[in-house]
Structures are given as structure tokens and as C-alpha cells.
Amino acid sequence: MGTTMTRDLTSALRPAIVMTILFAALLGLAYPLAITGAAQMVFPAQANGSLVRDAGGRVIGSTVVGQAFASDRYFQTRPSAAGKGYDGLASSGSNLGPSARALSDRVTADVAKRRAEGVTGAVPADLVTASGSGLDPDLSPAAARAQIARVARVRGIDRASLDRMITQHVETSLFGDDHVNVLALNRALDQRARR
Amino acid sequence: MTIQGWFLIIAFTGILLALTKPVGMWLHALYEGRRTPLHVVLGPVERGFYKLSGIDPNAEQGWRRYALHMLLFNVALLILTYAVLRLQGVLPGNPQGLAGLSPDLAFNTAVSFTTNTNWQSYGGEATMSNLSQMLGLTIHNFLSAATGIALAFALFRGFARRSVATIGNFWADVTRVTLYLLLPLCIVYALFLVASGVPQTMAGVVDVQTLEGARQSILLGPVASQEAIKMLGTNGGGFFNANSAHPFENPTALVNLVQMLSIFLIGFGLTWTFGKAVGNTRQGWAILAAMVILFLASVSVSYWQEAAGNPILHQLGVAGGNMEGKEVRFGVAASALFSVVTTAASCGAVNAMHDSFTALGGLVPLFNMQLGEVVIGGVGAGIYGFLLFAILAVFVAGLMVGRTPEYVGKKIEAREVKLAVLAIAVLPLMILGLTALSSVLQQGLAGPLNKGPHGFSEILYAFTSAVANNGSAFAGLTANTPYYNGLLGVAMWVGRFFIIVPMLAIAGSLAAKKYTPESAGSFPTTGGLWVGLLVGIILVLGGLTFLPSLALGPIADHLSMIRGQLF
User: Fold this and answer.
1) Which residues of B154-189 are buried (b: 16+ CB within 10 A; e: fewer)?
2) Residue at B366 is within a domain
3) pLDDT reading at A1 higher than 60
4) Which residue of A17, A95, A169, A186 is the best one to mutate when testing the B interface, meaning the one whose CB has the most B CBs within 10 A?
5) pLDDT digit string (tens) for B355-395?
6) Mind telling me how many Å the CA of B95 is from chain A's nearest CA?
7) Fewest CB atoms less than 10 Å from the CB: which of B54, B225, B340, B341?
8) Do residues A50 and B196 lie in contact, with contact meaning Cβ atoms separated by under 8 Å?
9) Does the beta-carbon distance from A129 to B323 stay under 8 Å?
10) What is the separation of C-alpha B142 from the centre of its chain, rounded to a whole number of angstroms?
11) Where are the beta strands (DSSP E) in B355-444?
12) What would the mean pLDDT of B423-448 be, rounded to a whole number?
């Protein structure tokens, strides 16, 4: 019995070791490198992060990943728990539970801030909650509209044009919620100012 | 709740039901070792692998030898990953210049990916080099999934074969599943992901000057190639810390739908393959019916709770569903659905932070895992786990009518029932034991971020996820400590292989039995009565075992939440 076990074990060692090496080469190197090669050839923009450049060619963001907007001149992004906020090297949610005092305190402060800007009625949930990634590029249309009063005041643009601008930027999907890409919306704001 | 939300859930289920038979047929061809159209291209690769490793793919193995080869292969893979992670600092493919991992973190991560758990004690972007992601982690995403499917094939053969001592060849099963199913699907899938906005490059960090003039660093890497197999193989280990909530892993609602579909795809197909293997596809549909009933019940609770939102925030003037930890492009319905899919299967990818779900919305994923992830379940692991419950169910039915229980032509006797109970008992023993230990030890109590019952839920969720090989987390728990890394590593290993070995023993024992044709006294295992019995057995076993722990965690949390009590 003992010798049979030893023989079985030795005979299983070679396939275990050689197959590990072969599969590592195929799945750990050849597969990802081949996909990289194909992706770089066929979809170079997306494969390299869907980067957005300004007129001077400087990278100002990615259409996919969110960036922080805190200034009153822009439509502001959601609270973020990624590092100090929208840290592309530290994606994270807050992980606060529903009955956490820290959550309630944070939302209380953010609601108060929105009230001070003139938001009346119910505050859209996404405007005062942190996303899962901390890099959410979007706002709900309601959360964007809740900021119209402030942006209109700071920029001196009439509210109806801002509302139209938001409507133009709403993206819909059959399988998710309507959303507005904040970077695209704010770039449109800046372009309008330049005209 | 909205009509659009329900449309998503129903469309999702409908698409999978439509794909069940085609996928099941493809899997059945691999199960039988038949030639597929892909053999023209990949056949030489398969033969080359056998030749270099000295494998005879036609050499049939008994259950002990099958188990031995499977275990040795997994240990070899474990060692490879441990070495890659420890040596990361001196290996190439490391544009960020990251250092090697600590011994406890490398151990935990290597076990985690070997066992198809993909628990992440680390934050992906600040820990793993591109080479580590590819050579250390992506290979496990393929091979732990292929191992799971191979094991399911072995158990199918136990039911299907008559009076023989063997259950197939491990190497042939694992190689065919990898080459003719997982790899080709992933190539197409990964390119779809890139087209949709998922990065795929060997470069590292891009520096961005934002519109407001601030600096932001964005991490790129070979994301799409890993993302594809991460979902399809029900692995769930993300390239980034935020997993499928990260816009680079999951950029659009359409990608999100495809990700959810790909978690369940193989699991749905395997039910059909099982039916075909035992000679009656209705046996497979009956299993799938029980799974889908449990799945839809879970989704309903989760969606209802998340759409209802958090009453504490409503008091503060906030409208609508619970959006803490969720992404706007998905919204409440697609996030709730994802959380159920990922924990019903043993995927563990997340597109929203489960820790921030409402109390009962967070209970659903927890309970799904505690049921043993047999609602569709992990690829392979789901169906072999489910068949253990089926053995118990026919045993219970046999007790009721006073006859020897039979299932798909095999008499279920004391040996099989004992082994099934042994495998199923691993779950409560490990989960509840380790949770209890960590709730009294200083090192355990140092983990939770949240206070009160939710803190206990974080510990319970961690061990549930580890033992059930899920890998999702109530991520507030600080798990990257020697205590949690070590204990969770052991939990993942036991949760995988201490179920597999008794399961293979059952396969061997069944294969040796002769065929018992169905008679007037047999309990029918295809109709509604059988489906109801299966659902009942799974719920009663899971419910009785875990309800007390759920009462201390999410249920107490819910009662606090509706009273507005803060911690």
C-alpha cells in the first residue's frame, strides 16, 4: 500500500509540474499579450484608457473614469471615498453601513451644503452618497439639475440653457439608469464660455 | 422599484434560459471528449501539452487518483503564484515599481485564487504589478474554473456510468475545458470589453491635469484579458480595488449586463449537461428550476430593499433608493441584481459595495453564500454542491416513504449520504467557528470598520465568503493583517478541498454501482414535487444552521436602521 501511494505520487508529479509551466505560458503570458496586441491594433483609444485631450494635446481626463469637480463654477461630482477623493490609484467605496453614524454625519453636512446653494425639496440620493468606486464619472439627471441654480448664478448663464444642456448630455440605457457624464457636461460649459 | 428594473431582471433570466441548452450541448461534447470545430486550431496544442507532460488522456482514473492529480496540480499552481507575488519586485512587467508582497498576503492571495475564491486582502492598484496580475492571477482564473468543471464532469460520470471503477481523466478534462471553452470565449469577450472602454495595455500610470487644474493619476494595465475570465470562470478577483464598480472594469450598463450573464452562463449550461449525461434532460431542467426559484426569490428581496432605500437618510431629506456604494450608470436595480448573481454563483465580483447595502439587502448575498452557493453556483462547484443536496433530498424522501432512495438510476446508500453530510457540514463548522473565534479575539475585533451589529456582519461575511469560496466582502473589514490573512487562507482551502474530496469519493462509489431502473416505487426526480423538495431541503438546512448568526448581524442591523439608531 505504502509503495503504491509513493508510486502514484511520483507519477503525478511530472504532469503537475509540466502542465503548470505550460498553462502559465499559455494563459499567463501568451493570452494577455495577444489580447493586448489585438486591442492596441483595433481599439487603441479604448485600450489606452479613453483619454480626453484639450486643444493643446494635454491629457485632461478619461471619458470613462470620473474626476473631482468641487468648484462652484462646475457641475460637481458625487462624494468620493477613493483616497482623498477621485484618486485613480485608490478606488474604493466608503463601506459605511446603513446605520453608521459617520454616514449620517457626512450626509447631513452635504445636504446642508446643498440647501445653502438653494436646493429645495428632496435631495437626489446620488448627489450626497459616495459611489462604489469613488471614481463615478456620472450624475443622475436629477442630481445635475439640482445644481443648475448655483452654476447659473456663478456663470451668469440662464437656467433654461443649462437645463437644455443637461438634457442633451443625458445618456440612456435599457439595462441601467439614465446618467450624465460630468466631464463632458463641464467641458460643454467651458466651451460655451469661450464662444 | 421600476418597470425598467423588473424588465432587466426578467430579460436577464430569459437570455440565460435560452442559452442553457446550446452551452450545455457544447459542455457535453467536452464531457464526452468529442471532437469540436475548434480542434482544428487547438487540437495540436492539446496533444502537445499531453506529450510534454507525459499524459495519456485516455488513461481512466479511479476517484483517488483523480483527486490526487487534481490536488497536486493545484498545489503546484499555488506555489507558482506564491513565488510570483513574493518576487514581484525583481520581476519585469512592473511599471509602478511595486515591491513584493508580504508572506501572509502572498499566502492568502495564492490560496484565494487557487480555490476560485478571489478574496482580495489587497487593493489591486497599489499592490499588484501587471505581470503578477497576468502570471500570478489570470492563470488561476482559468484553471480554478476548469478544475471546477472537471470535478463536475467526474461526478456526472459517477451517476452515468455503471459498475466501473473509474471516473475519467483529470488532465483531459481540465485541458479540454480550458482550450475548447474558456480560452476561445475569453478572446472574444476580452475584445468586446476593450471596445466598450476597458483598458488593455502593458503601460502603467497616466498623469492627468483635470479641468479644475488638479493632478489625477489614472492606472491602466492588462485589464480586459483578466476581466473576461474573472467573470466567466466565476472568479471575481478584480484588477482594481473597487472591482466591477470601477469604471475601467465595468464601463457601461451593457457591459454590466454581459458581466452578469457571463457569471451564470456555464452554471446554467452544466445543469443541461448533467441531464444529458444521465440520459434524461428533464433531470437537468428540474435542478435548474429549483435554482431559478431560489434565485428569483433572492433578487426580489434585494431589489425591494435597495429600492426602498435607507430610512435614516430619508429623514435627512434625501430621496430615493440606497445609492451609497453604488454607481449611477447602473442604478439600484442593476446593482441589486449583480449582488445576487455574484453570490448565488461563487463569483464574488461586485459592482457596488455590499457593506453599504441596506441591512436586508446585505443579508441576501450573505445567505446565498451560506446556502453553499448552489443557486447556479460557481462553475462546476455549483452543480456538484447542488447534487450533494439532491442526495440528501432523495434520502429524506426515501425516509418518508420507507424505501431505499434512488437518484437518476443509482441507489443512494449509507456511504453516499454520510459523505454528502460530511461535505455539507464543512460550511457551518468553518464559518460559524471562525466567526465566533474572531468575535472574541482582539486580533479579530480589530478588523471591522463599522460598529454595532454591522461590525459583526463584516466578520461573518468575511468567513462566509472565504469558506464558500465566493470572494466578495463587506469591504470595510481590514483583512490585510497576519491574523485575517492566515485564518481566511485556511478557511478558503478547507472550504474548497474538504468538500471536493468527499464529493469525488461519492463519484467513485456511484460509478461502481449497477444501474437501477426506475420502478413504480421510485420517487420521481423530475416533477414539481421534487423541485419543491429540493428548495425546501436547501432552505431548511441553510436556514436552521445560519439564522441565529443572521439575527445577530443583519437582522439586528435592520431593526436599528428602521428605528433610526446610529452606531
Assistant:
1) bbbbbbbbeeeebbbbbbbbbbbbbbbbbbebbbeb
2) no
3) no
4) A95
5) 999 999 999 999 999 998 899 999 999 999 999 999 999 99
6) 13
7) B54
8) no
9) yes
10) 13
11) 406-407, 410-411
12) 95
Tell me the three state secondary structure of residue A59. Answer: strand
Whole-angstrom distance, CA of residue B29 vs CA of residue B75 = 29
* String of DSSP letters for B380-399: THHHHHHHHHHHHHHHHHHH
- Check residue B330 and report its DSSP letter: T
- Which of B372, B376, B414 shows the shortest CA–CA distance to B392? B414
- pLDDT at res. B376: 93
Percent of chain B with pLDDT over 70: 100
Buried-state track B382-405, b at ≥16 Cβ within 10 A, e below 16: bbbbbbbbbbbbbbbbbeeeeeeb
Residue B422 located in a structural domain: yes
pLDDT in tens, A35-92: 999 999 999 999 999 999 998 999 999 999 999 999 999 999 999 999 999 999 999 9
Q: Identify which of B238, B244, B240 has the alpha carbon closest to the alpha carbon of residue B220.
A: B240
Q: Which of A43, A131, A186 sits opposite B194 (nearest CB)?
A: A43
pLDDT of B122 above 60? yes
Q: Do B324 and A46 touch (CB under 8 A)?
A: no
Taking an 8 Å cut-off on Cβ atoms, the answer to whether B207 and A16 are in contact is: no
d(CA A50, CA A2): 61
Q: Do B316 and A183 touch (CB under 8 A)?
A: no
Minimal Cα distance from B244: which residue of A?
Answer: A133
Total number of domains in chain B: 1
CB B507 within 8 A of CB B63: yes
Q: Which of B198, B353, B362 sits opposite A132 (nearest CB)?
A: B353
Q: How many alpha carbons fall within 13 Å on the CB side of residue B255? A: 25
- What backbone phi and psi angles, to 5 degrees, belong to B225? -65, -35
Q: What is the DSSP string of B200-221?
A: B-S--EEEEE-TTS-EEEEE--
3-state DSSP assignment of residue B516: coil
pTM, two decimal places: 0.96
In a domain, B339, yes or no: no
- What is the C-alpha to C-alpha distance for residues B69 and B74, in angstroms, rounded to an integer? 9
Closest CA to B145 of B237, B83, B283: B237
Per the listing, cell 470598520 goes with: B449
Residue-wise pLDDT tens digits, B301-353: 999 999 999 999 999 999 999 999 999 999 999 999 999 999 999 899 999 99
C-alpha span between B300 and B290 (Å, rounded): 16
CB–CB contact B142 A42 (8 Å): no
**Full residue range of the structural domain in which residue B524 is found:** 380-563
Closest by CA to B245, choosing from B98, B368, B374, B124, is: B124
**Mutation site, B206, B328, B450, B559, interface A, largest A CB count within 10 A:** B328
Task: Check residue A2 and give its pLDDT.
Answer: 58
The C-alpha cell at B289 is 428550476
Collect all residues with Cβ–Cβ distance below 8 Å to B526 and sequence separation of at least 6: B280, B282, B283, B285, B286
Bridge partner residues of B215 (DSSP): B209
Averaged pLDDT of chain B: 95
